[in-house]
């Protein structure tokens, strides 16, 4: 007859064997409750299932790519009107005109930005006739010609006669351009008009004359077809005087004279831009 001390030990051996059998049962050859055949069928099912999903995904992408154009986006209705962009890329500018280190970043930004507009670079483009759209036909993938926009057209704001763009004299220049939109042909005669948000106006000079975006720079055919294209610019020189110094000036610039929108409250940069500038002495 077995002693009472042997019974707990036998029970522990039985529990240990049951736990090990749940992982691998040597009597039935099951691993984690399944035979090798069962595991093979499951793995085969998931292999076929995920291969089918991958094939459907690749087929969908392939069909979608067949509908795309390499040169023109398929859907362009979300941005029918261009935004107005300022250079230097600062909506809040503050500097002392007698301390070059303070306005040096603005000057460097303008100088770097205008490198593509250098006259020697632009002479490789076409001298287009002003006043009309420069529409071009061509074969698929054929490069379109670009109209010249020479840096010298910006006159006092070109950085050629004054390398500091007027910042050292307290009469700074800012550059404005429209965002590129493929196929855009603005109606009317678009030009930039800037106003100061205060009771007394600020004198300004525009380059080119009257701050106009000539139609010869439209339409734009896209980055792949129009590699040498540069956006037309309007330079605005703020003719500040001593009464304007040491005061934050808020300037709003809008595209006027065309069908381009500039009054959408949901987008403060659609056809307009507002910036603040403080010049100290």
UniProtKB/TrEMBL annotation:
It is a single-pass type II membrane protein. The chain crosses the membrane at residues 43-68. InterPro entries: Na/K_ATPase_sub_beta (IPR000402), Na/K_ATPase_sub_beta_sf (IPR038702). GO terms for molecular function: ATPase activator activity. Keywords: Cell membrane, Disulfide bond, Glycoprotein, Ion transport, Membrane, Potassium, Potassium transport, Signal-anchor, Sodium, Sodium transport, Sodium/potassium transport, Transmembrane, Transmembrane helix, Transport. It is found in: Cell membrane; Membrane. PROSITE patterns: ATPASE_NA_K_BETA_2. One of its GO terms (cellular component) is sodium:potassium-exchanging ATPase complex. GO terms for biological process: intracellular potassium ion homeostasis; intracellular sodium ion homeostasis; potassium ion import across plasma membrane; sodium ion export across plasma membrane. Pfam families: Na_K-ATPase. The keyword Disulfide bond applies. This is the non-catalytic component of the active enzyme, which catalyzes the hydrolysis of ATP coupled with the exchange of Na(+) and K(+) ions across the plasma membrane. The exact function of the beta-3 subunit is not known. Belongs to the X(+)/potassium ATPases subunit beta family. This is Sodium/potassium-transporting ATPase subunit beta. It comes from Salvelinus namaycush (Lake trout). The lineage of its organism: Eukaryota, Metazoa, Chordata, Craniata, Vertebrata. The gene is LOC120055468.
């Amino acid at each position: 007859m077995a002693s009472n001390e042997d019974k707990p030990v036998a029970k522990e051996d039985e529990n240990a064997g049951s736990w090990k059998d749940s992982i691998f049962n040597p009597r039935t050859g099951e691993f984690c409750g399944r035979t090798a055949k069962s595991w093979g069928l499951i793995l085969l099912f998931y292999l076929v299932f995920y291969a089918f999903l991958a094939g459907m995904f690749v087929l969908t992408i392939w069909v979608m790519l067949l509908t795309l154009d390499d040169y023109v986006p398929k859907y362009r209705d979300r941005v029918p009107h261009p935004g107005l962009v300022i250079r230097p890329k600062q909506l809040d500018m503050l500097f002392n005109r007698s301390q070059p280190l303070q306005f040096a970043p603005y000057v460097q930004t303008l100088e770097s930005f205008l490198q593509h507009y250098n006259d020697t670079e632009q002479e490789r483009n076409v001298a287009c006739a002003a006043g009309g759209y420069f529409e071009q036909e061509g074969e698929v993938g054929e490069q379109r010609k670009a109209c010249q926009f020479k840096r010298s057209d910006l006159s006092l704001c070109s950085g050629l006669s004054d390398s500091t763009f007027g910042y050292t004299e307290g009469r700074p220049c800012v550059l404005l351009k429209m965002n590129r939109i493929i196929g855009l042909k603005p109606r009317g005669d678009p030009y930039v008009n800037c106003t100061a948000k205060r009771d007394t106006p600020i004198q300004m000079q525009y380059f080119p004359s009257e701050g106009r975006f000539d139609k010869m720079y439209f339409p734009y055919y896209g980055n792949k077809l129009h590699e040498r294209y540069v956006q037309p610019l309007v330079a605005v020189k703020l003719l500040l005087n001593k009464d304007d110094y040491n005061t934050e000036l808020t300037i709003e610039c809008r595209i006027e004279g065309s069908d381009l929108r500039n009054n959408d409250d949901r987008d403060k940069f659609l056809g307009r831009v507002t910036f603040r500038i403080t010049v100290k002495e």
